[in-house]
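As a warm-up, study this chain.
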Amino acid sequence: METITTSLLIAGAIQGALLSLFLFSHKKGNKTANTTLAAALALFSISIACHAISLLLTVENDTHDSHIIMSGAAYMFSPLIYIYTAFITGRKKRYIPADLVHLLFVVWIALVYIMSLILTAHNVTFGRHHILYSAVYFFFPFQIIVYSILTLRLLAGHYRRIRENFSETGRITLYWIGAILLLNVATWLSGSVMDTCFPRNDRVWDYIWLFVAVYLYILAYFALKQQPVLFVSGDSAEREKYRNYKLTASQSDSIKANLDRALYENKIYLTEGLTLASLACELEVPPYLLSQVINDRCGMNFFELINSERVNEAARIIRENDLSSIAETAFAVGFNSLSAFNSAFRKFKSMTPTEFRKRRSRGAQHDA
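Now compare it with the structure written out below.
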């Protein structure tokens, strides 16, 4: 059984390294974000390989060294996921010197390792239960939780921004990063608990690292599929200019009148892939001011406004035309997927399109 586990771990490490190289050389998407994620995959591939090697070795010092390396790599995973999320959501454009703060825990582990070499050279026992080494494991769950919270805050801000700028968000919500965070927290916290409860059972970490290998593949898969998230709402000078700008009543009325004309006369909401920037360009108004009018005068964000009008148009089509399919109706009013249409229809009409059609049919039969 141990041979099978070791073989699986080695295979996982090799495949993880290959995925890391592929992400690093991947030309599509956000290059800096992909490079950051490639570094995370590479570190964990090294960790998995070290754990596999430790299973094959019987020398205590070699096993101890592999644990130190694995700890350093594990401490870097959460910061790298946080930095990757900052890049992919557009909150970060490049690395800056302040990013070195994320290496503090790794520096600490390196100092612990150096200390272990010094103590060992002076015939002082330094094993996994030494206070300095135990401290590395003690702070690890807290570090994961802190970085997970910071990453979730980035995702929450991203979700809010895309609903203010896009009428379709299905491919850019980044829900999969949240799922990876939950897997990461669950994996390492359960590993820490089991290591505390069964301190002499090293087999626990065999399965933990196998599970890590699996969700790293999931991470790489979604990262390669992820489309770039582009917020096109003016340059930085324009954003700064209108950030605290207060519209007068007449300006707000004028923008609202033009918006109503675009919505109800031109039915611009039927345009698939409509964005706040493209609508603002059509109305010849800065995106920030248009967003302000939509939020203040319509009581909803851009995403909700456009999709509510699409749903109203779909409801009209369903009432007037029994022959059109639900899918045809969805694409006709600007949705790019049936699932997004069903979700929006349920939100604004409190029922699915199919239920709406059935109720309409029953009402028509009753009237007849």
